[in-house]
Structures are given as structure tokens and as C-alpha cells.
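This section describes the prediction task in plain terms. A model, or a person checking by hand, is given the sequence of a single protein chain and must write out its three-dimensional structure as a string of C-alpha cells. No templates, partner chains or ligands are provided. The sample shown here is typical of the held-out split.
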Amino acid sequence: MGKSTASDVSMAPTATERPRRNKYAFACTMLASMASILLGYDISVISGAALFIKDDLKLSDTKIEILMGILSLYSLIGSALAGRTSDWIGRRYTLILAAMIFFVGALVMGLAPNYATLMVGRFVAGIGVGYALMIAPVYTAEVAPASCRGFLTSFPEVFINVGILIGYISNFAFAKLPEHLSWRLMLGVGVVPPIFLVIGALAMPESPRWLVMQGRLGEARKVLAKTSDSEEESEIRLSDIKEAVGIPKHCTDDVVQVSKRSHGEGVWKELLIRPTPSIRRILIAAIGIHFFQQASGISVVVLYSPKIFQKAGIKTRKGLLGATVAVGFTKTIFILVATFLLDKIGRRPLLLSSSFGMIMSLLGLGFGLTMVNHNTEKKRVWAIDLCIATVLSFVGSFSIGMGPLPWVYSPEILPMKLRAQGMSLAVAANCVTSGVISMTFLSLSKAITIGGTFFLFAGFATLSWIFFYTFLPETRGRTLEEMENLFFKPKDEKDGNNQHVELLGNGRGAISGRDQL
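The expected answer:
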């Protein structure tokens, strides 16, 4: 029977202890999470702008479909580069780089005279979004103390929703302008968030884990002292990080030499070619949760909400854009609720309840859209109301768990030396799934009807619930350095003297020997 260590006692909150809110860590993660506004704004503003772009530039449905969904695939380049870039120049300067790239992309889109230039702007902006998607959750996970890591690392998703809401409001505000001017202003306003992000990033400290990876222990010690809830916790976190990097715990030097491996080299081999059983399971969990986040159709609902509401029976542009603002408000309100629940009731309960609510909402939306298509104008009022209600319940259910948790869960379960590149793979899965679904939605809805498409998304949501229930352990209150043990359980071998570890089969959180009391 294992004994609990100081790390376990000090880092895991008791049932009656309320997590403290470290104001400095709060400010750091708030600033870093502003990068997520870039994605949120882009995916929502293009949904309304596309109505005007199609008419102004005389584009086909296929070109609009590609225009709206291609950013997710372009962002693959940014997320792939961000892992190595963040290990090379640091998490903070990678955030600044993401903002600068997106600024250029938004400027090109706002000034685009034709479809080809618009696609160039989407390409540049997509790279910036890819950088932001990967680095924001990595930085917040590495700065946040364990007591409130779920609360703080949910901020990227909060700001995605803030960006979505701002984009929808921008659509509504500029909708009355002349057609050739309205969509350019909608897209061009995207240059504003990157300016604030750069200013904020310049005031942020570097990630303490990245500093230790570079051998800069003195700087890391100062950052941890500010971002931890106590001096004891600060020393424990530093000791755990040094152990993970391979630096002796007793080392008190401010600057030490570290191996090349600590700078990011060789991690792809550990992740993909010769992973240990624990790393393989962690990688599947990280990629799986991001895949299912998008496979349930959230990108379609955000990008094509005007189209969905149009199919449901809303005809005027003002009504369509007004309804999308309601979607933005609903998403934002529920994500704010989720941030306060993550460290109170845990990851698994939120994921399971969120995915269940999405399943019910998607089934209702599919049924409602099917009835709208088959009923006469007078008899389908109830079906229109059902469609609107289920769209709102879907985004609400998504935001309460499925929205923030991939960005909380993935960076916290990946080992430090593999975190940046591991998140790159997870974000890549997210972007590919989002891009494929977004670029095929119109074609798919024509092939199997729009109602049938949402029944298909309900099927994916059901698979996600099964995956979460069987595969993902609870991580609330654990330090980042303890995560690898969550995917294993110790088992005595026949001689009774040695132990080996085997995969945790039910995903419900059996912990390493030292955590068992």
C-alpha cells in the first residue's frame, strides 16, 4: 500500500477546501487566452460575411463552402510549426508571432478585391490561428497551479466564444452597409484583437516549464513563486519539473546546462515511432477528445447558423444575423458557467453530461429540420421553434463541457517534454475534422438532407460519450507531472517483489501506487 507524498497532500484539494484564485496566474492565463479570440472571431464573422461575399463576388456554393472551411486546414500548418517554434523561442514569443500572422491575414482579407486574394488572406490567417490554437492552452496549463488549473485552462475556450460573439455582432452591425463594403469591414475588423494580444503578451512572463527546459532555473523559480498558491507549492512544482526534465532535484543553481532533448529534439520518435504504452494511451486520449469535439458538428452550427436558420424558416438577413447573435450569447454564457464547474465537479461528469445534451439536441434538430421540409407553411411553426430551441440547447450543451475540456484535458495529460508536439497533433486532428466537416456540409446536406446530416452528427456524439466513459480518467487536482500514472495501475507480479503496470481498462481514474491510501 503506497504512501501519499507532500506533493499529493499539498496539490490535491480536499472535499471542503475551496480552490484559491491566484491573481497573477489568473492575469497571465487571461492574457494568453486572448489568442483564442482570433479563431472565434474568424469562424463566426465568415458565417455572416459569406452571405454578402457570395452575392458581391458572384460565387458558387462550392467556392463558399471551401472559403468557409479551408481555414481549419490551413491552420494545420500553424499548429504543426507551433510545437517546434514554442520549444525554440518560447511560449510567450510564439503567442506574439501568432498575433502578427493573423493581423496580416485579416488585413489581406479586408482589402481583398477578388476571390483569389481572399483565399490568400484565409491562408495567412489560418496559419496564425493554428499557432494560437496550440500555444494558448499549452501556456495556460504550464502557468496554472493544480488547485485551479481547470478554471484557468478553460479560458482559451472562453475567449473563443467571446470571439464568436464579437464576430456575430460585427456581422449584425455592418449588415446595413453596401454589399461590397459590409463584408470587407466584417473581416477587416479582425486586425484589432491581434494588437491587444501583442501588448498583453509583452507584459506576460515566460512559461516556467519552458524556462526549466532551457536550464534557466532562477527565472523559473521567480515565475513559480508568483503563480503558485504557496511557497511550498512553488518548490514542489519546481522539483517536479526538474525531475521531468532530468535536472537533479537538489540543484540550486540559477542556470544549468540541459541536454538537447530538452530543447524539443527527438520527441516525435517518442510520440509516434516508439511510444511507451502510457504515452500511446495519452496520445489517443488527447487526439480522440479533439476529434470528437469537431465530429459532433459544432463548426457547422457556428459557420452555417444563418443557413440552418434559413432552412428552419427565417427569411430576412436581419432575422438570420439576429438569430446568430443569440447563438453567440448562449455559447458565451454557458462557457462561463463551465469555467466555475471544472475544478468543483471534475472533467468526466462535465464531458459525459455535455455529450449527452448534445446527442439529444442533435436528434431534436434533425427531426425539426426534417419536419420543416415535409410540412406546409402553416403546419410547421412548431418545427421552426423546435429547430431554434435545439440549436441553442446544442451550443449550450457543447459549451458546458465539450467546448472547454479538450483544451483543458489535452495539455494537462501530455508529459512536459512531449507537450508542445503532442498538442500539435491534437490540434491537427481538431483542424482536419473541422475542415472536412465544414467543407462538405452543404454537399452532404444535399445528398442526405440537412436533417439527415444532423442525425449523422448525433451518431458521432453518441460515439464520443462511449469514448469518454471508457477511456478518459479524471484529472482534477493532479499535478501535471503526475498525469502519466493516471493511465496505468500497479499490479503485483507473481514473485510478489516487483511490480509492473498495465493499462487502466475502465478509464475511471485508478491512480499510481503512491496515490493509493
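For orientation: Residues 23-210+266-471 form a domain with the Growth Hormone; Chain: A; fold (CATH 1.20.1250.20).
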